[in-house]
Structures are given as structure tokens and as C-alpha cells.
Design brief:
The chain has 13 helices and 13 strands. The protein is an alpha+beta fold.
């Protein structure tokens, strides 16, 4: 039986999340900013039509924002993460197997559904997701994941497709491939694009017709797989259980420069706590940690950037233990007289919790600490993020990133839940 994949992609996801609880924004330009309200990382279709570019610093376009009444939002991680989970849960209830590819994308396995029913099924998925979550999606259906990506792009950009397109490998599909630049193909980076340009391969159709052995000779097996996938030959199967991360990083730019060690310590230990939670969530342990601090390279004044790596005596995901070694590293890194803009932590050599070997001289009561952290994680999952935390993380967060346009945490914070009074008459 031939495989059939679908790629479901949320349209302008961050902007769409903001519109769920502010329906008056429908049809109006919306942009979402990066950390510290710096650059534009999401745009509604209306904002795109105004010529607002992805990654553009917001301070460069104040006139466009004011003249066109562009609605500006700070990144609301809690809201976007929760809405993403709702979308993925809804998709999981509609198909037998799926792969969560990113916060706003998922591959579905539609194998077994008759070809003449695939478009209708795709529309059913689209309508269900929009009805249950309020998020508009586009769906590309095809025999391979690479073709599904292309089909999704076309479904999103061509209004006549109504958000759903099936590329089944026929002549009509080839007509679409002739319109797709080779640079827009999933997996094509700058190196591949340069080679294709030199080889006079400019479209997806031309790559499909290319000599796969020549492509393999110059770009390796990954390049060959691109050709085969465009021909409808499956090279990438659905990953129902993607591998756990081998490295985890948490870092942020501060809302304002930090000079005092105490503030730098509070900020960095908050990042350490987040990394520890991520390790526990994926049931992993880390063998080493890297702490880094840096000043703002674009600002005037003395510059400083440095890092320190510590190999842990025993692989761990316990917050207190990671904080202990992070403090040791940070004290050696910190220097007076500098205005620090950013710090962070990276844990490496991440291994499954069940596959580690204990140390004969390890004196830490890990089982007791594990039970304590399970209680803390459980409280925080029910009562709210960081309701229970370590004292070193502090309570004052002057270093917190700027979020002057932050919308309420409608779905994750009790005080921000939307109140609707059906008895109130205007």
C-alpha cells in the first residue's frame, strides 16, 4: 500500500493565537516581536502586504505601524505553547499516527484513505482544527514528506485551493513543481542552492528530473533523497517518537544591562532551573553544563564574553545539583565593570535516565531528591510556573526581558482568564 502523508501547518501561528481572544483583530495587520521587543518574528497576511519584513527591527518602522494601525504584540510563550498543544491534541484524535514537527507543524499518516476522499478528509481536518482551537491551518497531502511540504506551501499561497492541496505525482502535480523554486524545497540550504544554481537546476521539477547519482556524488545521500522524494519515493518515514534532545540550551537577553553579580546570578539560575525541568520532562540526565555570559556587542563601552564548561561527577537532572555547579562556574566568569546583556546555560552529553551508571563514591541521596522534585514539578504544573522555586532564583526580576506589548496568558494563568458576562447589557 502506497504511503500518503499530510503536513498540517498553522497559518501565521503567533499572530493567529493573538486573534483567538481578540477577534476584532481579524483582517487587521498584526506583528509579534522577538525577545525584548526587538525584531519582528511573526506577521499576519495584512502586515505582509504592508511590506513589513520578517526579522526587521521594530524601531525602524514606527511610521508604518502608526500610519496603518498595526497591532504589536510581545512574544507570549505560554499562550503559544498551550494553543500548540491543543492543536496537536486535536490532530491526534483525527488520525492513527502523527509526528509533531514544530510548534505549529505536524505530519500525519493518511495511508489507507482512498485517493478520491483525501481532499475531503483534509478539509474535515482543517474545519475541525479551526472550530476547536480557532487556529486556521493549511494542509498539503502527498506520497512523501518533501512533496507534502511543497503541497502545503501551495495550499497556503493559492486562494483557489481553500487551504488543502493533494499532489499525487501526476502531470498536474508536475505543473505545480515547475512553479516552485528549488530554494523553497524542504532541506535545501545555501550550500545545496549554490550547487543547484551552478547545475542550472532552478525548480522542483528540474530537480525531480535530475540525475540522482550525480546529485549524490556532489551532495551525498541527503541530496539524493531530495530527488527520490520529489519522485514520490519515500525516504523519510513518520517519526512517532522523535529522539530526545542531546543538548538543551536556555538563554535570554536581559531587559536592561546587568552590572551586579547578584542580579546576574538570579537570572542565570532561573535559566538553570528551566533546563533542569526540560531534562526531567524528557526523562534525561546531563553529563556536562556550559555557562556563558556576554555584554552587548552593539553597545558602547568595554566588551566581555566568556564561558566555562563543567563535567558533572554524576549525570543529573536535579535542579539543586545543576545550580551548585552553575554557581561555581558563574563566580569564575563574572568580572566587575561590565554591563552584561545576556547569560545562559547549555547542558550536553544528554543521556536517558534509565541508561546511566552510578558513581561508587556518589553521596547524594538521589532518590529522595527525585521525589522532592516530583512534588515541586507537580505543584508548579497545577498552581503555575515557579510557584515553588529555589531561593537563589530570587523574587525581583529587574533583568526580565522587555515585553511592553504582552497579551494576557488567557489559557495558563487564572488571573488572565477571559471573563464573559452574558447578563450584561451594553
Amino acid at each position: 500500500m502506497s504511503k500518503v502523508f499530510a503536513l498540517v501547518d498553522c497559518n501565521n501561528f503567533y499572530a493567529s493565537c493573538e486573534r483567538i481572544f481578540a477577534p476584532a483583530l481579524e483582517g487587521k495587520p498584526v506583528i509579534v516581536l522577538s525577545n525584548n521587543d526587538g525584531c519582528i518574528i511573526a506577521r499576519s497576511e495584512e502586515a505582509k502586504l504592508l511590506g513589513i519584513k520578517m526579522g526587521e527591527p521594530v524601531f525602524k518602522i514606527p511610521e508604518i505601524i502608526e500610519k496603518n494601525n498595526v497591532h504589536v504584540f510581545s512574544t507570549n510563550y505560554a499562550l503559544y505553547g498551550d494553543i500548540s498543544q491543543r492543536v496537536m491534541n486535536a490532530l491526534a484524535g483525527l488520525v492513527q499516527d502523527m509526528e509533531i514537527y514544530s510548534i505549529d507543524e505536524a505530519f500525519l499518516d493518511l495511508t489507507g484513505i482512498p485517493q478520491n476522499e483525501l481532499i475531503d478528509f483534509g478539509r474535515k481536518i482543517k474545519e475541525t482544527i479551526e472550530q476547536w482551537t480557532g487556529i486556521p491551518v493549511s494542509i498539503g497531502i502527498a506520497p512523501t514528506k518533501t512533496l507534502a511540504k511543497i503541497a502545503n506551501h501551495i495550499a497556503k499561497t493559492e486562494v483557489c485551493k481553500q487551504g488543502v492541496l493533494f499532489l499525487n505525482g501526476d502531470q498536474k502535480s508536475d505543473q505545480y513543481l515547475r512553479k516552485v523554486s528549488v530554494r523553497e524545497i524542504w532541506g535545501v540550504g545555501e550550500k545545496y542552492a549554490q550547487f543547484f544554481q551552478k547545475s542550472k537546476i532552478f525548480t522542483a521539477y528540474e530537480l525531480k528530473q535530475a540525475d540522482e547519482n550525480r546529485i549524490k556524488e556532489h551532495l551525498g545521500v541527503m541530496g539524493q533523497r531530495l530527488v527520490l522524494e520529489l519522485r514520490g519515493i519515500v525516504c523519510y518515514s513518520l517519526e512517532s517518537n522523535p529522539d530526545t534532545k542531546k543538548e538543551i540550551c536556555t538563554s535570554r537577553s536581559f531587559g536592561q544591562p546587568i552590572t551586579a553579580y547578584e542580579e546576574l546570578e538570579q537570572a542565570t539560575m532561573n535559566y538553570v532551573s528551566k533546563v533542569a525541568q526540560k531534562l526531567r520532562k524528557q526523562r534525561s540526565l546531563a553529563k556536562s553544563i556550559l555557562i556563558f555570559i556576554m555584554t552587548n556587542k552593539f553597545a558602547d563601552g568595554p566588551q566581555y564574553v566568556n564561558y566555562k564548561i563543567i563535567q558533572l561527577p554524576v549525570p543529573t537532572n536535579q535542579t539543586a545539583e545543576l545550580i551548585h555547579y552553575a554557581v561555581i562556574a558563574l563566580k569564575k566568569l563574572y568580572k566587575k565593570g561590565f554591563a552584561y546583556k545576556k547569560s545562559g546555560i547549555i547542558v550536553s552529553d544528554v543521556v536517558p535516565a534509565k541508561e546511566t551508571q552510578t558513581n561508587l563514591w556518589d553521596k547524594v541521596n538521589r532518590e529522595k531528591n527525585k521525589q522532592l522534585l516530583e512534588v515541586i514539578d507537580n505543584i508548579n504544573s497545577k498552581a503555575g510556573i515557579e510557584q515553588v522555586k529555589f531561593a537563589i532564583q530570587g523574587t525581583e526580576k529587574n533583568w526580565h526581558m522587555r515585553q511592553h506589548h504582552l497579551s494576557p496568558h488567557y489559557t495558563t494563568k487564572w488571573s488572565d482568564i477571559l471573563i464573559v458576562d452574558v447578563d450584561k447589557h451594553v
